[in-house]
Specification:
The complex is a heterodimer of chains A (about 525) and B (about 425). Chain A has about 525 residues and is of the alpha/beta class. Chain A is built from 21 helices and 13 strands. Chain A has a five-stranded parallel beta sheet, with helices on both faces. Chain A has a four-stranded parallel beta sheet with strand order 3-2-4-5, with helices on both faces. Chain A has a three-stranded parallel beta sheet with strand order 7-6-8, sandwiched between helices. In chain A, α2 links the parallel β2 and β3. In chain B, about 45% of the residues lie in helices and about 15% in strands. Classes of the chains: A alpha/beta (about 525), B alpha/beta (about 425). Bound molecules: iron/sulfur cluster.
């Protein structure tokens, strides 16, 4: 057993949901109890998807155990097929169903449906979300591209001279950190190099598209955590090489262009000569001098943490004090990056351990996940979010990629804006503690004041420190303190206005609620 | 005891309501979700879920915005070593509890919360709680309950939690005066309003379950009369009955009418003079009705459809139909507790359609066919239905917001007005 306060990754079946939800024409039947349907809200609320995830849950109950959970599963598959008419059905078990061992794959096969059944074995007590996503994508790729694989030992036919080189773009999923915009940015970049995208998958692809994967000359792996195993298999099955560089940051994007140029046999030297991002100049401009040597703590999934370390050290002139990741599968990459930048490496999925490290290292900037954002908020350290687990804020309305040259522009702003500007910092230093607003204990206004601000909780009695202007009876004042902080100011103003208009000498609890009744509309 | 007060307009004979009973996919949370508000309510309690990564992820996702550095809940995640018998799950649990208590010496009451995996592998948490209570006595009391999805739906987690507290309640003194116990977690602000009204009515002593601090657990016995403040507390009520307490039957305290009837029933049980009751309740009720009369203009005649969620649906439907003039298209509830809801059910219109349990796909078909003005549903369904053109109200807000009592009646109505008003505002 492991004591866990917050988790960086969900269970592996949530990874499978990210694949199914990103794709078209796939339906996932998950043998799971009712509470597991919470996972739908990740997609409908956090990502604001307009459709429910294509997932049917069997929602078996205690009384079904040992009697007819298997039949329940079969009828769920049949109903899902009849209703949604998918091109392929994924079947699998969540943690609880894994224990009752109903064999979803076998049960679904027994229905003899006219579409392929892809049975997923995702060990819930061992693996996590990204692994589940990678495994699911790999199973789908094998199922649909497999029949078209080259015969063993066969060579790939060379590309016809008149055809432009093409690649597959692999790894973007539903609920991915900026996957929506990264995909668009890289498609644009590849087009400018002169490379077509044959299939982008899993996001936006159908099973029929997966069957065409072999047509491309090579694969671009956007997120190795998700597309790694599939790319490796495609390399064997179709002799398709794949990219190793993840184009996050100016340096990495340039390396990526060179790598693609080599794979596509295109001369990219003029492209590499052109300056296409504002990051390098912004970073050289004098205003950025104050960034020099700022101590940064980095934590995220391996891809984004390694990329952030390179950008921080080589493109912004920060000092990286730690590089960490919860992606244990990529521990080697994290250690290599840490060594390269003389930083501490941290491989853990224990939130409390990450918190301890941040506290001990006292960095000036934290580049982390939403979890580290909360730690940093409490410690009053500026922070920017660089990686999943995702939050509703990680799906901005505007175009906001991390990859490519536009991604580098976005990253410059993201990493630098939480810090105070150089001159601002000097002025504050001069007038330390003199001015309440700019005192040194004040955090930049976009970093909300200390502690967490629970919104979905019952109001607790909090003694009000606000100044009292009218004559408030002590109980009324106490009552006011119980009103949730984010409407308390308004409640006070309204009550005072109400009392003043009526010439009431003293505000009592009754006045408070009379005013509330008066103003509520 | 029956609902007292002058507002009750039950017809002497009424048709049995139509109840759709379905089995299919249920789109509801499990009882673990209750931890999200219970850990805020009982301020010195800690909730340790014994479960899987899914359980930890559920609570975290349901808690959504409120990530604290160290919340008063955590999950002991079972791993393959526990399942393969490589490690003794009980010994592992003991180790985790010791680790937790060492880290958090402020914990006075620890709940071990069972999950689907802990139940399927038959990890006996009641025995573990006994053993651990012995090990960590006298500083920490350790209890257990199930919040698993195979046993409990959403708010039933609170029921299981409160039921586990009942055996911990001291027996009342032999010479105890009759007392009133209000059962069900309420926001502190609501609790305080209720205390003042009970005092004005002349009812006391009044205690609350759950208490704000574990040490303040009230006593219980034959002199205890209790009234439910929440409609999902079947097991807790049974446990209190077993301790000799008597339940007051009343509609739930939602809306001006509901709250009047609720207080009226309590006052009747305590033999308070009806004239005095009316003199205390009338001003509060009138004040509550002021905002309601305005909201009624916006809601009257609007058709509402409830997907099952918290078991609050029946009293909410009663409030919306009687006090705001809404038309009930379908009132879905995960479980219909006929006895506890009797007074609310009696106040529903004769032609009401209830549904118990769920087949979410079929229910969505019905909902689309009916094309209601407002749909009350969970977070998984809300945006997709909005995208289809329906207007929705997230049901979870009804559980996380203070809605009970006179002073909140207007706020409760406003929760239903807002989505409709928003629709009319947006032109883009
Ligand atoms: S339904 Fe069961 S397995 Fe799922 S989160 Fe709830 S308790 Fe855990």
């Amino acid at each position: 057993m492991q004591l866990t306060v917050w988790t960086y990754e969900g269970p592996p079946h949530v990874g499978a949901m990210r694949i199914a939800t990103g794709m078209e024409g796939v339906h996932y039947v998950l043998h799971a109890p009712q509470g597991d349907t919470y996972a739908d809200l990740l997609f409908t609320m956090i990502e604001r998807r307009q459709k429910r995830p294509p997932v049917t849950y069997t929602t078996f109950q205690a009384r079904d155990l040992g009697s007819d959970t298997a039949n329940l599963f079969k009828s769920a598959v049949q109903d899902a097929y009849d209703r949604f008419q998918p091109q392929a059905i994924l079947v699998g078990a969540s943690c609880t169903a894994e224990l009752i061992q109903d064999d979803p794959g076998g049960l679904a096969e027994a229905l003899h449906l006219p579409v392929p059944i892809v049975a997923l074995e995702l060990p819930s007590y061992q693996k996590k979300e990204n692994w589940g996503a990678a495994e699911t994508f790999y199973r789908l790729v094998r199922t649909f591209a497999g029949p078209h694989a080259l015969a063993p030992g066969a060579k790939r036919a060379p590309r016809a001279a008149e055809r432009r080189p093409s690649c597959n773009l692999l790894g973007a999923t539903a609920l991915g950190f900026r996957h929506r915009d990264d995909g668009a940015e890289i498609i644009r970049l590849l087009a400018s190099i002169g490379v077509d995208v044959n299939v982008a998958a899993p996001m936006g692809a159908t099973p029929a598209d997966l069957a065409r994967l072999g047509d491309a000359d090579f694969n671009v792996v956007l997120y190795p955590e998700i597309a790694g195993p599939s790319a490796k298999w495609l390399e064997k099955a179709f002799a398709q090489p794949c990219t190793k560089v993840v184009p996050i940051g100016v340096g990495a994007t340039r390396d990526f262009i060179a790598e693609v140029g080599a794979l596509a046999n295109i001369d990219v030297s003029t492209m590499l000569d052109a300056e296409q991002s504002r990051l390098p100049w912004y970073s050289r401009s004098v205003d950025s001098t104050y960034l020099t040597g700022k101590r940064v703590f980095i934590f995220g999934d391996a891809t984004h943490a390694v990329a952030a370390a390179r950008i921080a050290a080589e493109e912004l002139g920060f000092t990286v004090v730690a590089v960490g990741s919860y992606s244990r599968e990529f521990a080697r990459d994290i250690r290599d990056a840490a060594q390269k930048y003389g930083a501490e490496a941290l491989i853990t999925d224990d939130f409390l351990a990450v918190e301890q490290h941040i506290q001990a290292l006292q960095p000036e900037l934290v580049l982390g996940t939403q979890m580290e954002r909360h730690i940093a908020k409490r410690l009053k350290i500026p922070c920017a979010v660089i990686s999943a687990p995702v939050h509703v804020q990680d799906f901005p309305a505007r175009y906001s990629p991390q990859m490519g040259f536009e991604g580098a522009n976005v990253i410059f702003d993201t990493f630098v804006h939480p810090l105070m500007m150089g001159l601002e910092e000097h002025l504050l230093g001069m007038f330390r503690d003199e001015d309440g607003e700019f005192s040194d204990t004040a955090v930049p206004s976009h970093l909300a004041a200390s502690g967490a601000a629970p919104i979905l909780v019952m109001p607790q009695a909090v003694p009000s420190a606000d100044a009292i202007t009218l004559d408030w009876a002590p109980e009324a004042q106490k009552e006011l303190g119980k009103i949730p902080f984010f409407v308390r100011g308004k409640a006070r103003r309204n009550t005072e206005k109400f009392a003043a208009e009526r010439g009431l000498p003293r505000i009592t609890i009754e006045t408070l609620y009379d005013a509330k009744a008066h103003f509520s509309r | 005891m029956t609902a007292a007060g002058g507002l009750c307009a039950t017809a002497p004979t009424r048709r049995e309501p139509t109840i759709i009973r379905e089995r299919g996919q249920r789109e509801v949370f499990c009882g673990l979700t209750g931890i999200v508000w219970l850990h805020r309510k009982i301020q010195d309690a800690f909730f340790l879920v014994v479960g899987s990564r899914t359980c930890a992820h559920l609570i975290q996702s349901a808690a959504g915005v409120m990530i604290f550095a160290e919340p008063r809940f955590a999950t002991a995640i079972i791993d393959e070593r526990d399942l393969a018998g490589l490690s003794d799950a009980n010994a592992e649990l003991d180790r985790i509890v010791a680790q937790l208590l060492e880290r958090r010496p402020d914990i006075k009451l620890l709940f071990l919360v069972g999950s689907c995996p802990s139940e399927v592998i038959k990890l006996d948490l009641s025995r573990a709680a006994l053993r651990l209570s012995r090990d960590h006595a006298p500083g920490v009391r350790i209890l257990n309950y199930s919040g698993s999805g195979i046993e409990t739906t959403f708010t039933q987690g609170e029921d299981a939690c409160l039921a586990s507290l009942v055996p911990e309640m001291a027996p009342e003194a032999t010479d105890a005066a009759p007392s009133l116990l209000v059962v069900g977690a309420l926001a502190d602000v609501v609790e305080d309003q209720f205390k003042r009204l009970f005092a004005a009515l002349g009812i006391g002593p009044v205690q609350f379950l759950p208490p704000r601090r574990a040490a303040d657990l009230p006593a219980v016995g034959r002199k205890t009369t209790y009234i439910l403040a929440q409609p999902f507390l079947g097991d807790t009520a049974r446990a209190l009955d077993d301790r000799g307490a008597t339940r007051i039957d009343a509609p739930f305290p939602l809306g001006a009418e509901g709250t009047s009837l609720w207080f009226g029933a309590a006052a009747a049980a305590f033999g308070i003079d009806p004239a005095h009751v009316e003199s205390v309740l009338a001003p509060a009720r009138d004040r509550a009705m002021r905002p309601l009369s305005r909201y009624r203009l916006a809601l009257k005649g609007k058709r509402i459809f409830f997907f099952p969620d918290s078991q609050l649906e029946v009293p909410l439907a009663r409030f919306l139909s009687r006090e705001l003039g809404m038309k009930l298209v379908e009132v879905g509830t995960p479980y219909l507790h006929r006895e506890h809801l009797a007074a609310d059910l009696a106040l529903l219109p004769d032609d009401v359609v209830l549904s118990e349990g769920q087949d979410v796909e079929k229910q969505l078909d019905r909902c689309r066919a009916q094309n209601p003005d407002l749909v009350v549903c969970g977070l998984g369904l809300a945006n997709p239905l909005e995208a289809e053109g329906l207007t929705t109200k997230w049901s979870i807000e009804l559980v996380f917001t203070p809605i009970q009592g006179f002073e909140q009646a207007g706020d409760l109505a406003e929760l239903f007005v807002r989505p409709l008003a928003r629709r009319t505002k947006l032109v883009a």
